[in-house]
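**Protein record**
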Amino acid sequence: MYNPYEYQYPYSTSSIYAQSDTDKEQLFKKLENTLPAVFSRQEVAKQLGYAISAKTLANLDAKGLGPSQKLHIGGKVAYEKENFLEWLKNRVTI
C-alpha cells in the first residue's frame, strides 16, 4: 500500500548540494548557447526547468530586484541575454 509519508526523494541530498564552480560554469555556457538574444520571462522559466517562474521574475522586477535592463514589448517584458545572465550569476549559489 502506498504511504505518502515514506516517499524517497530520487536524488541523494549530497548530489543536490555538492555542486562545484565547474557545474555553475557549464550551466551558464549552456544558457548562453540556448537563450536567444532577447527573451521573455516565460522563456527563462522554460530554460531553467521552472526553477524560477515568470511570476517570480515579475515580482522581483516590481521590487527593483530583477535584472536592471528590461524591454517592454507589446505588454510583455523581455530581457537581453548578457544582462540577464550577469544578474543570474550574482543570484546562483553553490
